[in-house]
């Protein structure tokens, strides 16, 4: 009984209670430690992501300016992708910190500040990497209120968090700062809605394609009336560029504000027009007609290519020491305006408006004689200029379907208002950070301040990049200034405005040349005229080791190849504009599809290149032999066509499953023949054995046709063989370029910025060049 005395029971109860309390306290301390470690890890992750976003934002600004000079050969797209990736990664980390901010007033206030700033960045980052599906269409300009429903929901939720967490619980100054910032974020959302609505209603942005269709109908009718229906125009013996009435800017002036017939009005219609095919010939169903009431007197006030061409030709150099460089810059400005005009014409193809001039002699003469000659005696310069115009045209087209460009075109002042509002938001944001720091006492306050400032740097970097690349230093703004400069004006305009425009153009010229000098000092090449094309060799693709290193390599398109393509385009008949399937001696292409022809002739070209051994490296200032030039053209274009078969079948005339199946069959046949001929090993000797094989060892008819063609051309003179192959591949590439598959080229342009085949497709679209079947003469 002594063990159960009241004193013993009291002592035992005390010990049990103490032990239980100690155990629970220890468990609580353990959970608290784990929670603190988790918070610390998340804070470090947020810090790391914010640092990465700030670095990428600064890099985006530099690379964006570099892209204006060096073209698409920069890392601009990759930086935008990485910035969006880090932004998406930052959102769940921020959500975690917001959910674990209970009892931490300083952390909660900073998280709310970050959320408000993120809402300003979100829309810009989301459109950086867009889907190519449907982005090049009339729907891209359409205003959709439901498209902003997510933004409204997020802002309402953030406002509720501010109201429930800050309003009534903090100081008056903090409450005021958060209220102003939330209202500014709401105003920015309203401005984005206004921007989209204005871009949709603007005749210079969304309505431009419709007006261009009507204007080109007017130009074509005038051309036909002057030439008596022949379509060649009254100035057929002069420079086509000097008589080119393609519109550069000012189409919004055509539309009459009042309805009904006016004394100087004219109704324009586009009868017998299918989308993107023109009036010559009538071979497709009608899709969309244009009916437009214009003021005929306003036509003379429009800025056209011939005005730019003649006005800029008379511009003197500002300094004698820069005369040659300035003249090259003036030529670049002229071609830039021509590219912008082509971009407006090509937009109709994507938005399904009629291209009435396509197929006319006026259009073919402008493209085949004007663009491909441009009054230069050197063939190399002709080819470089022609491809440069096409590249700039595709750049304009790709940039237009991004978020900021339609806003700039429709109402530039809205763009400046957006930038000024962002600066106002940042100023109040920084002031709010200082207020929270003054009133707060959180141990992690320093880390929160750094994250807040890094987000500010990211926002400013994106805004500055957009301001410089989309507006101030953009090619569109330069074209706009040139149109203002060449447009007729009053004496006051000529004395005040034009010198300012010239000063800004000269300033841009000096800035770009300074930036080019900096790039050269850092070892960066500046070749704005080069075209990078992808290469695939079916022999390398059959070998497992080489396949890893040559999946789709890039090479610079040689000038010899550009010249060969341009010379072949010049030979197209102005009257018909038809291109037929090329033939090469020793290969029967009758009954074969384009995919089978590419596979067989590519195999023959690769085997011949291997049989002739490695090419000797050209020394500096050493002129290349014609045979070496032809060999370069043939192998480069052959591997590019094989790249289309292996990696981009949607750009070929044949359907994609057929292209993929034929490619896999030929590749499997070559693998089996190589292993059987040389004991299962890979290498040069195995392909030499394939060169000597016969039809029994090559079961695939396409592979055997390629080997048979190689065995025949190998017996010919090497110079003649390479010349014939080079001509064949040039003509085959031109034969593949015309296409009605607008969606395929839109996807290629939106994803990779377009390629050589897309440049040629744009050229063939403007000139009305079409494929013709050799048997029945039908155009395809």
Task: Pick out its properties.
64% helix; mainly alpha; two-stranded antiparallel ribbon; 780 residues; 4% strand; 3 domains; globular; 8 strands
Describe the structure.
By secondary structure, the chain is mainly alpha-helical. The chain folds into 3 domains: 2-202 and 411-472, no CATH class; 208-406, no CATH class; 558-617 and 624-772, no CATH class. 64% of the residues lie in helices and 4% in strands. The chain has 26 helices and 8 strands. The chain has helices at 6-70, 76-99, 105-126, 149-165, 172-201, 208-227, 305-313, 323-350, 361-373, 379-400, 404-410, 412-439, 445-472, 475-486, 491-521, 538-542, 544-549, 559-570, 594-611, 626-646, 656-677, 684-691, 701-713, 718-736, 742-752, 756-767, and strands spanning 247-249, 265-269, 291-295, 303-304, 532-535, 553-556, 578-580, 770-772. A two-stranded antiparallel sheet has the order 1-4. A two-stranded antiparallel sheet has the order 2-3. α1 packs parallel to α13 (445-472). The longest helix has 65 residues, at 6-70. It is globular. The model is unreliable at 8-30, 230-237, 279-286 and 776-780 (pLDDT under 50).
Record the SSE blueprint.
Layout: H1 6-70, H2 76-99, H3 105-126, H4 149-165, H5 172-201, H6 208-227, E1 247-249, E2 265-269, E3 291-295, E4 303-304, H7 305-313, H8 323-350, H9 361-373, H10 379-400, H11 404-410, H12 412-439, H13 445-472, H14 475-486, H15 491-521, E5 532-535, H16 538-542, H17 544-549, E6 553-556, H18 559-570, E7 578-580, H19 594-611, H20 626-646, H21 656-677, H22 684-691, H23 701-713, H24 718-736, H25 742-752, H26 756-767, E8 770-772
Parallel strand pairs: 7-8
Antiparallel strand pairs: 1-4, 2-3, 5-6
